[in-house]
C-alpha cells in the first residue's frame, strides 16, 4: 500500500487559525486577570491641605515653600505657606516639606485605552475600515479597565487625549482623566477635535539594493495630489451639507463634521515637512478653521508663518531621529524650544499608547535643549490644556480648577528622581499601584532583592 501525504483542507486551516486566535485572546485575558484590579478612588470627602512643598504651578511660577488646598474636587487655595496659618481641624493636613507639587501631566494624541495587546486583534479598537471616517468617536471605545493607564499615573500622567487613527480622516478624539469606572466618568471633554493625516509623498533615501522604488516619483506625487483633492472635495461637500437646509436623509459622515464648521471642534492635522505644514494650514484656513499641527518635525523652519496664523504645534517625541538627512542630529531635541521661544504655543507628545508613561522625560529632554525647566513643564501641562481647550479646568494649579495634581519626592521631569508619592484626580486620592509594580515586587520577593 502506498501512503499518500496528508493534505490539510482549507476549512481545517481556517479553523486552526480561529482556534489559535481564540487561544491567544484567552491567554491574554488570563494574564490580565492574574493581577488584582485597581478600583477607582472615591469622591473627595474632606478638605486636603498640602503644606510646605515646592509648588510648580504649571504657568511658570514656582513657590518654594508653598501650600495647595482643595475641597470637593476643586482647588481653593494656592500660595506661600509662610504667609498663612492653618488650624489642625481645617482639614486633612499633609506635610510635604522638601517635596514637589505639580499639576497632573496631560498626554496628547495617543491610543491609550483603545489598545491592550498589540498581538491580539480582539483588543485593538483604534481604527476603522475606510479612508474618510469623521463619524468615528474614540471615547465610546475607551476601556477604563485597561491595565495601561495605571502605569502612567505612577509618573504623574493623569490625563490623556485619546484619538482614533488610520485613514485620511480618523474621527474625533476626547480628553479623559485616568481613574474612572467607565468612559462617561472618565470624560473631561468629549469630541474635542477631528483628526486628519495630511497626504504626503514618500521620500526615499536609498539603501540596500539601490533603494529601488515600486512606483515612480511622478506617480507617487500624483497619488498625493489626488488624496489632497479628495480631502478638499469631502470638506467642501460636508460644509455645504451642514450649512444648507436639513436633508431628508442623514449623511452620517457629513453630519459628524458639523461641530468642526461651527468652531466647536478643533482640527488636528498630522504633518511634518515644511511644505506639508504650510499646505495643511492653508487648507484649514480655506474652510475658516484654525488647525493644530501634530508632529511638526520641520516646524522650526517656519515659526513666523505659524505665529502669524496662530497655529499651535504638538511636537512628536524629542527622542527621535531627525526628519531630514541633512538636519542637525539634535534637532528633535531642540524643536520644541525653538517654537516656544519664537512665540508658538507648543506641547510635547510621545508615540504609541504604551510609551506614554515616559512623557515627563520628553519634557525633561526639552528642558535640557533650550527651554527653562518651568517652560518645559508647561509643554505637558498648561500649554497642552490650552491647545486641547480644557485650560479652564486643568493644566495648572490655580483656584477654581480641578484638583488634579501629584506630589513627587524629586524632579518629576527627571527619570532618576521622579518618584510619585501621592496623586489626586479631581480631589480623589488615587491608588498608585500598577501591574509593573506588582511584577517588580513578585520577582524581587522571589530572588530576595530589596
Number of strands: 16
CATH homology-level superfamily of the largest domain: Metal-dependent hydrolases
According to CATH, what is the topology of the largest domain?
TIM Barrel
Segments where pLDDT lies below 50 for 5+ residues?
29-34, 206-210
Distance between the termini: 68 Å
Question: Helical element count?
Answer: 13
Coarse structural class? alpha/beta
SSE arrangement, N to C: HEEEEEEHEEHEHHHEHEHEHEHHHEEEH
Radius of gyration: 24 Å
- Give a short account of the largest sheet: 8 strands, mixed
What is the averaged pLDDT score?
90
Principal-axes shape call: globular
Question: How many domains in all?
Answer: 2
Q: Mind telling me which CATH architecture of the largest domain this is?
A: Alpha-Beta Barrel
Strand percentage: 15-25%
Output the CATH class name of the largest domain: Alpha Beta
Helix content: 25-40%
Structural summary, described in words:
Helix content is 30%, strand content 21%. It is an alpha/beta fold and 450 residues long. It folds into 2 domains: 40-104 and 395-450, Urease, subunit C, domain 1 (Roll); 106-390, TIM Barrel (Alpha-Beta Barrel), CATH 3.20.20.140. Strands 1, 2, 3, 4, 5, 14, 15 and 16 form an 8-stranded mixed sheet that branches. The chain has an 8-stranded mixed sheet with strand order 6-7-8-9-10-11-12-13, with helices on both faces.
List keywords for this structure.
30% helix, eight-stranded mixed beta sheet, single chain, 13 helices, globular, TIM Barrel, Urease, subunit C, domain 1, 2 domains, alpha/beta, 450 residues
